[in-house]
Amino acid sequence: MTYRAAALALLAGNFIIGLSILAPAGMIDPLAADLRVTVREAAFLITGGAVILCIGSPLVAWGASTIDRRMLLAATMAALAICHAASALAPSYGVLLSIRLVEMAFAAIFTPQAASAIAMMAPERERPGAISFVFLGWSLAAAAGLPAVAWASNEYGWRGVHGALAVGAAFAGLLVWTTVPRGLKSAAMSLASWSTLLRSRLVLILLLATIFASTGQFVIFTFFGPLLARTADATPTEIAICFAAFGVAGFAGNVVASRIVGRVGVLNTSLIFFAAMLAGAVIWVLAGRSIPLAIAASAVWGLGFAASNSMQQARLAGAVPAIAGAAIALNSSSIYVGQAAGSALGGVMFDHGLYVAMGWTGVTFLALTLGTIALSGRIKSGAGTAAA
């Protein structure tokens, strides 16, 4: 069995992980109404979960590097299935939040370890494309999953969404178990390995760019539905269409990125798709009460969302290939730092009715991201070669 079958299974796992992490953004209003909490309190499901994800990713990279990847990844999916089933039965917000924090501790395992596994299976020249392919799961979560969550949570309730995710996680775990080969392990991580990462100027500036991008993203994305409802009187169907435009464009962007990266290089591909995110954020701010413009903004923004992260992973793997799993884990952790910061900042601004200012805050962080990525192209990697 070639690595391509395993890649499909890991893509399915990333779809469930991406949707598990992002799903609260698609059902904040129904969840808040049903559990009788504020929108800001409901959004803390994202903020609190991001803190756990931030801490968990590097710890897992350190502690689980010698564990068989098939066993680790399949067990993660099984644990996620149990957490979603428990969430569907949660009697109160406090119980749901507690389950969410446990769930995110398991979710922290999958994405970086899936990237590490596919990097070990794929031939070196195919590695960037293979990593990008596996991350299509995140794009699919945004393309197909989030619109479905936004629609289904309004029609059938948020508990039904968690039930469906429990079934999906169990199925993805079975796929991983039957396709990923036994014996995939990496060398044990030492303190010296982490020191190598933290001494690399290229690694550090790429992680900073990830934090900026994620902060700018989640200032708005966490409150995507509520913002559309309050600024443009958007209906649940129109909100679902915006989610769909974002996700479908994200999927398309990742496919395009995986095809052009070999011709134009990882750095130039990164610049293209981070610029798309910035352009989408600007259109979002200027859309005002126009639903068509909001849909266009969602599509342009989404075009860069998944592809830019895939390129970050590929550049980090190229900068420190011997400890790529740890570098990718730190990138995942940086995403969650930005996710926590952005959703917390957005929550404060949302409570004060600063809806337009939230948009410009996202634009500012994404502009900083694009500048940081451009700067990273002038920095040499730890091996003394030009940055990818």
Architecture overview:
- With 388 residues, this protein is mainly α.
- The protein has one domain (3-376): Growth Hormone, Chain: A, CATH 1.20.1250.20.
- It is 84% helix and 0% strand.
- It contains 16 helices and no strands.
- The protein has helices spanning 3-26, 28-35, 39-63, 69-88, 93-121, 127-134, 136-155, 158-179, 191-199, 201-221, 224-232, 236-264, 266-287, 291-319, 324-351, 355-376.
- The longest helix has 29 residues, at 93-121.
- The protein is globular, with a radius of gyration of 19 Å.
- The two termini are 31 Å apart.
- The model is unreliable at 382-388 (pLDDT under 50).
- Specify the CATH class: Mainly Alpha
The CATH topology turns out to be Growth Hormone, Chain: A
Structural classification: mainly alpha
Question: What order do the SSEs take from the amino end to the carboxyl end, as H and E?
Answer: HHHHHHHHHHHHHHHH
Average pLDDT score: 87
Q: How many helix segments? A: 16
The largest sheet is: none
CATH architecture: Up-down Bundle
- Can you give the helix content as a percent range? over 70%
Based on DSSP secondary structure assignment, what is the total number of beta strands?
0
